[in-house]
Q: What sequence folds into this?
């Protein structure tokens, strides 16, 4: 034989028609259970990766990859800071900004908001707000015109529409003979955006940088500079490098720190789901134990004959390890194929299920993300497949040890 006889016998035991059909039934059930668990793991992790990618894209469509903030009341020479940062090979674009709080009033309705002063041309290079305009445009923000672009939820809460005039109330007061009075300025609504993140849609307003400097008396300063990188995952490294290279008194933060709690929560959810769904694979894998225990009992005479012909206990163990491992391998491969097919076609499978049962899982009027996104990662698939195979292999150890301890004389006494 060109192959070890343990492999030959183990494969033959797997293929052979058993006298005990119940053993075959449990084997098939274990195989299908492993396949189902592996497929479920791949699909769920792919969907969670898709949600994470979608949320990251929406957040970074408004936030920045790296944000440089002035420490002492703002940056007075932001052009020099922007020039130093864009000299870094990873930095694609830089844009100045003014960030402050304000109350926005319209028809007796007042809503708190974050006001961001921007240069529209530069902002388009570091953020994607211009791609999410429901009405108007960022280019309508002109210096001295006092135009404002509102988030869709913010506009809805104060009842503002395109072309309306609203009042922005700055928190810094001005001293008058009548006492300290808040500083007010009327703005024209020139645009409304919707990025799909409630935090920004309900609490962010954009005005021109020059208008923000006048409103908040910045004296030509800006709050900081926002950067866009070639690779968003390089942000922590780039932030560290810029901290050492910039000669201004600034604080450098990247998106992984400014939204650390949010992305950490998503990552924890992904790990918890992996552990929970892995239990399905574990239950199916350990069904192999019962399959092999009954197979060992069924093959006691065969084991005794092999032992009398000179087979060592370790060789008997290998026969049943091969038999159990084959169940795990087949189940894992079937699960990987089915899971990847579903993960790649979630956009087709989910609408078909919704149409079949007449239920919409993510209603557009409730959820910002109304379609299930999917982003399969091969590293996840490899980890799932290896874990499934390891569990299947572990399940073969006890029955194989039991087979190796069969006493030939006892097994053949009544044969």
A:
């Amino acid at each position: 034989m060109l192959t070890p006889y343990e492999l030959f016998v183990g494969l033959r035991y797997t293929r052979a028609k058993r006298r005990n059909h119940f053993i075959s039934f449990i084997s098939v059930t274990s195989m299908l259970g492993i396949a189902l668990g592996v497929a479920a793991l791949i699909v769920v992790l792919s969907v969670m990766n898709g949600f994470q990618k979608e949320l990251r894209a929406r957040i970074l469509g408004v936030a920045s990859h790296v944000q440089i903030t002035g420490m002492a009341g703002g940056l007075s020479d932001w052009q020099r800071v922007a020039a130093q940062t864009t000299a870094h090979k990873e930095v694609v674009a830089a844009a100045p900004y003014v960030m402050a709080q304000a109350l926005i009033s319209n028809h007796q309705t007042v809503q708190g908001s974050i006001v961001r002063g921007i240069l529209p041309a530069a902002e388009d290079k570091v953020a994607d707000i211009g791609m999410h305009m429901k009405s108007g445009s960022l280019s309508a923000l002109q210096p001295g015109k006092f135009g404002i672009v509102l988030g869709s939820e913010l506009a809805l809460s104060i009842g503002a529409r395109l072309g309306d005039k609203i009042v922005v109330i700055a928190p810094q007061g001005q001293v008058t003979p009548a006492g300290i009075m808040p500083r007010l300025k009327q703005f024209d609504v020139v645009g409304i955006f919707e990025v799909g993140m409630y935090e920004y849609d309900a609490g962010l307003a954009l005005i021109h940088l020059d208008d923000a400097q006048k409103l908040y008396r910045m004296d030509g300063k800006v709050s900081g500079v926002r950067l866009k990188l070639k690779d968003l995952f390089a942000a922590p490294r780039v932030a560290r490098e810029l901290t050492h290279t910039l000669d201004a008194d600034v604080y450098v933060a990247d998106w992984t720190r400014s939204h650390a709690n949010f992305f950490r929560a998503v990552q924890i959810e992904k790990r918890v789901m992996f552990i929970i769904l892995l239990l399905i694979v574990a239950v199916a894998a350990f069904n192999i134990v019962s399959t092999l225990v009954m197979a060992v009992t069924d093959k006691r005479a065969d084991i005794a004959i092999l032992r009398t012909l000179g087979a060592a206990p370790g060789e008997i163990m290998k026969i049943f390890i091969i038999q159990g491992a084959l169940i795990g391998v087949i189940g894992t491969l079937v699960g990987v194929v089915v899971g990847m097919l579903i993960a790649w076609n979630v956009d087709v499978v989910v609408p078909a299920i919704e149409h079949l049962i007449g239920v919409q899982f993510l209603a557009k009027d409730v959820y910002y993300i109304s379609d299930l996104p999917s982003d399969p990662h091969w590293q996840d698939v490899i980890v799932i497949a290896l874990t499934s195979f390891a569990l299947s292999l572990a399940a073969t150890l006890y029955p194989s040890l039991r087979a190796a301890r069969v006493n030939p004389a006892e097994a053949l006494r009544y044969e």
Notes: Residues 5-57+262-412 form one domain.
